Amino acid sequence: MSGPGGVLRIVILGGTGEARSFVETALARHGPAIDPITSLAGRTQAPAALPGRVRIGGFGGPAGLAGYLRAEAVDLLVDATHPFARHMPHHAAEAAAESGIPRLRLERAPWRPGIGDRWHSLKSVEAAAECLPDHGRRALVTVGAQEATRFAAIEGAQIYLRAIDAAGLPPERADLRHILARGPFDLEAERALLAQYRIDLLVTKNSGGAATVAKLEAARAVGIPVLMVDRPTPPVPGPRVETVAAALDWLAKRLEERRRDVMN
Ligand code: NAP
After folding, report:
1. Buried-most residue among 41, 129, 146, 225 (CB within 10 A)?
2. Residue 258 near residue 1 (C-beta atoms within 8 A)
3. Per residue in 119-152, pLDDT tens?
4. What domains, with CATH codes, occur in the chain?
């Protein structure tokens, strides 16, 4: 094993609540047996504090990531990037294969419509922006800062862009406003938000997960439609789990294997 005294060094490709929860629980359970390094792309201006080590910024493609994994003598790679991250899961798969490091994809399950939901499925954020004025006049848009610029050119509708911070958002004007907030959000607060801004349409990506599902429950409760952007690509092949608990089981097995190796 690479870390000092047989400590298992794990790189977690983060930017998600799952990555955070994985590191927090893994450290609580395994303490000094692991050395987790969370990697962030650096999109959020002031990311919330994380336990363990943190590095920020791209690697320079799959070869850069493979080089980093070797240079840091990394033992395991957990790719917990967002379900809408288009490149990193592929880079992670390639780099792990090249470096001979076990990799796990942690990707939460998508949301599914229930009784009372009025979802319109769309292939891209761009498509959602194009058809927005056909579905509502006052839209709450929660697609992340990176793709929010697509809503800057819409005419004939009042747009509320919700994001963690204003970095990358198109500038505010009378018919385009920012709502800066970091999840998780609860149902009561989401209902209040819809009422406060008299929202008649929700635009979102099918990110899945509990932290931001309340907006969909609120939309269902007040009967407004949802423009739901589908996930971009089929999942990367290879080991994949949908929950933090399953990822922690995978880690526990790797630690058990390590203990057996050390004893033999
Ligand atoms: P992406 O298209 O897969 O990534 C673009 C580039 O950003 C990658 O090629 C990589 O640069 C760098 N990168 C991405 N994730 C990284 C990480 N965890 N650590 C270091 N570098 C990283 O992903 P994206 O959609 O731009 O998202 C960027 C980050 O925001 C991801 O970490 C993701 O988990 C998080 N996020 C994304 C969304 C979303 O809707 N897309 C939502 C919430 C959070 P190099 O090629 O130079 O290594």
Report:
1. 129
2. yes
3. 999 999 999 999 999 999 999 999 998 899 999 9
4. 4-109+233-263 (3.40.50.720), 119-229 (3.40.50.720)
Q: Is 16 in the pocket of ligand 1 (CB under 6 A)?
A: yes
Name residue 33's beta-bridge partners. none
Write the burial class of residue 80 (CB in 10 Å: 0-12 exposed, 13-18 middle, 19+ buried): buried
Calpha distance 12→187 (Å, rounded): 30
Which residue's CA is minimally distant from atom 40 of ligand 1? 84
User: How big is the CA angle at 228 (ends 86 and 211), to the nearest 5 degrees?
Assistant: 75
Query: Any idea which of 3-7, 42-46, 185-189 has the lowest mean pLDDT?
Result: 3-7
Which atom number of ligand 1 is nearest to the Cα of residue 143?
A: 40
User: What 3-state DSSP class applies to 121?
Assistant: strand
Hey, what are 4's tokens?
A: 């000092």
- Decide: 42 in ligand 1 pocket, CB within 6 A: no
CA-based torsion, 10, 13, 18, 23: positive or negative: positive
Q: pTM of this prediction?
A: 0.90
* Closest alpha carbon to 155 in 133, 126, 178: 133
pLDDT at 48: 85
Residue 38 in contact with ligand 1 by CB distance below 6 A: no
